[in-house]
Structure formats: structure tokens, C-alpha cells
Amino acid sequence: MDEAWIVPLPTFVQEPFEVFVNGVPQERGSDYDVRGRELRFEKPLAKEGRLGTVRWLSIFLGIAGTYRKNDSVDVVYEAGGQRRVASALPIIPPKKEPLRPRT
Which of 31, 54, 61, 74 could form a disulfide with 26 if both were Cys (CB 3.0 to 4.6 A apart)? Predict the structure, then answer.
């Protein structure tokens, strides 16, 4: 997995756990891998990010909506004998190599 989207696991989440992307169960090994305290996905994931002033105003006025990709990664785990959910975990995109000038 060279190019991976990384989702850091919260410190309170311990194995065993279940992983969901947009409510769809994910399989370890085929959909994601675990490396240390991180989930690593090969398929692209995205967070919408902050809306700019113009976009926010157009949504507020009903002129436009927001249709950007906004994935949600949730982890279901057990703590104190109860099932709990860590939801909307942060997504870190792969690092892009800076462009080098041709010589």
C-alpha cells in the first residue's frame, strides 16, 4: 500500500473493532489494513472540508447545494462491556511528492 488514505484510531479504541465507510462494513485485508494505530485505505477517501464564504452564502440563500464527496469513517468497538462508536474520524490523504524541476 504505497498510496494510502490514513485514518488515525483514537487511543480509546482497542481491537477487536469493526470499520464502516459511509455506513458500509469494510473488510480488513481487502478494504483496509491496520498499521500501528492507523487504518490505511487504498481507495480514495475525502472530507468535504470548510466551505468558503461565497459557497456558504449560496447554500444559505438556496441558490446552490454542496455536492462534494464527504466520506465518513466510523469504528465500532467495545468498552466496559458496551458497544460504542467512534464516528466521523479524520481522514489524512496521501502525501504528494513535490514537483521537481527538470534539468
Answer: 31
Q: pLDDT tens, 14-54?
A: 999 999 999 999 999 999 999 999 999 999 997 655 556 66
**91 in a structural domain:** no
Q: What is the spatial distance between Cα 10 and Cα 73, in angstroms, rounded to a whole number? A: 12
Q: Please state the domain count of the chain.
A: 1
Q: Is residue 76, in this structure, part of any structural domain at all?
A: yes
Distance CA 35, CA 46 (A): 20
Give dist(CA 6, CA 37) in Å, integer.
10
At 60, is the secondary structure helix, strand, or coil?
Answer: helix
The shares of helix, strand and coil residues in the chain, as percent rounded to the nearest 5, are 10, 35, 60
Neighbouring residues of 13: CB distance < 8 A, sequence distance ≥ 6: 75, 77, 86
